[in-house]
Amino acid sequence: MTVLQRPNILAQHHTSQRPNAVIDGLIGVDVADYGGSFTNYTTPTPLTTTEIRYAEDTNTTTPGKRLYIYANGKWSYVALT
User: Fold this and answer.
1) Is residue 58 part of a domain?
2) R_g (Cα) of the chain, nearest Å
3) If DSSP codes are grouped into helix, strand and coil, which group holds residue 62?
4) What is the mean pLDDT of the chain?
5) Segments forming the whole domain that contains residue 68
6) Residue 12: inside a domain
7) Band of the pLDDT at 81, cuts 50, 70, 90?
8) Is the per-residue pLDDT at 19 higher than 70?
9) pTM for the complete prediction?
10) Does residue 17 or residue 73 have the better pLDDT?
């Protein structure tokens, strides 16, 4: 069976952009062993002009958590403690 992975509703909080809502988990989540310090983590292609993702590197020697936001055409992140 093939399962298509795409949001049920795409949206943005911006009056000049359509569609204007993203719902399907609300925030993307990526959890895996990315080699420590997110060495092998690649942010996905965004579905809208603004997007938020939570990423967790489960590497046993250097685990980490980050919150990513896609805005103004690029991904930025903050490390979480």
Assistant:
1) yes
2) 14
3) coil
4) 81
5) 28-80
6) no
7) confident
8) no
9) 0.69
10) 73
